[in-house]
Amino acid sequence: MPEIAEVARIVHHLRKSLVGKTLSVVTAQDDANVYGKVGTSAAEFQKSLTGKKVLSAGQQGKYFWMIMSSPPHPVFHFGMTGWFQIRGEHTAYYRPKETDEEEVWPPKFWKFSVETDSEPKVEAAFTDPRRFARIRLVDCAAEDIRNTTPLKENGPDPVIDKDILTEEWLVEKMKKRHVPVKAFILDQANISGIGNWVGDEIMYNAKLHPEQYTDTFSAEQIKQLHTSMLYVCQTAVDSLADSSKFPDDWLFKHRWGKGKKDAATTLPNGAKLTFLTVGGRTSCVVPSVQKKTGPVAADVNGKADDMEDTKKAGKAKASKKRKAVIKEEEDEVEDEDDEETVTPAKKKRAPTIKKEVKTEEAVTPKKGRAKKPKVEEQETAKSPPATKKASKKVKVEEEPVSGRRRSGRITNGKV
């Protein structure tokens, strides 16, 4: 997913190619996800931008926008696979394979395309194969864009909001929360723009373990986290997400081998790389550098309260809840296994037993306590070895375990 640096790269290209030009042709393809889920449509978008001049472009974290000559202004979010392409320009943050094939235009998976009126003409298009991107219109003055939804619900940007995201601000925020620190910095309601790889780079640079709870760090550790956050984000943005310009000692250079055959499992200095799941995301960690100095999440998969305070994680939270339910059921079965059980060989049913012996059975139903009736039974079949002590008080379980088979458990006098 494009993060703060990749979005900065696109804003750079928008300023370079579209700012100062009038959009003479705007063509949009309707998409119920990309437009519809944020309250607009392709037709409305097309009508609102056609004939208008692009005055500027801006960014807050993972969101970016174009300021038009009059409202409304378009605000974009790339989602997982969205991107802005400019014909003839290399806007991607990775080096594409060289090919002799002519560039196809409009590109595959395009959601809208624009063309400027003045020479040299510029053609640009917004693409998204997986349709998680969002394109909306904000009807307000240009200077109020950041005060409207969804930008106003997001935290400060580590690059453009250094006056807000101070060391004191971070200390206060972290001390009020009790979540794994990486989950905290990934939450866009806390800080804008930090995604998975940037978060791992910050944790590694600060020498902090991503699972440790936010309210367990010392003031000195939070100061280091603040320094690392500003350094990593500013360096990545200044490089316009070009990884070839990243420092050689960054984790980014070595973290992409998980699951690949013959991939390196250590840094060049021999330090081991491990992978954990924190805040619902895979995290690359160097244990010899990122040591735990306080309590951490009980389970790296975050079944308990890893994300209880993290907003915008509804699906991840529902998944964790399901896992917790499964874990509870497993624990119940383990508790039941502590009771006396009989497992007959080859899982054969024991013969039916009809008794006519005087016995007292202590029947303890789920609610209340039943009387102890005397039952006249006559034994007509030979008791199996597991039930020879039939005259003893036998625990009668009236409530079966839902969805699970009890192999050979004595229940209601039957095996």
TrEMBL record:
Residues 302-312, 353-364 have a biased composition (Basic and acidic residues). Residues 313-324 have a biased composition (Basic residues). Residues 296-415 are annotated as: Disordered. GO terms for biological process: base-excision repair. Residues 2-133 form the Formamidopyrimidine-DNA glycosylase catalytic domain. It catalyses: Hydrolysis of DNA containing ring-opened 7-methylguanine residues, releasing 2,6-diamino-4-hydroxy-5-(N-methyl)formamidopyrimidine. Keywords: DNA damage, DNA repair, DNA-binding, Glycosidase, Hydrolase, Lyase, Multifunctional enzyme. The keyword Lyase applies. One of its GO terms (cellular component) is nucleus. Residues 328-341 have a biased composition (Acidic residues). GO terms for molecular function: damaged DNA binding; DNA-(apurinic or apyrimidinic site) endonuclease activity; lyase activity; oxidized purine nucleobase lesion DNA N-glycosylase activity; zinc ion binding. Belongs to the FPG family. PANTHER family: FORMAMIDOPYRIMIDINE-DNA GLYCOSYLASE. This is Formamidopyrimidine-DNA glycosylase catalytic domain-containing protein. The lineage of its organism: Eukaryota, Fungi, Dikarya, Ascomycota, Pezizomycotina.
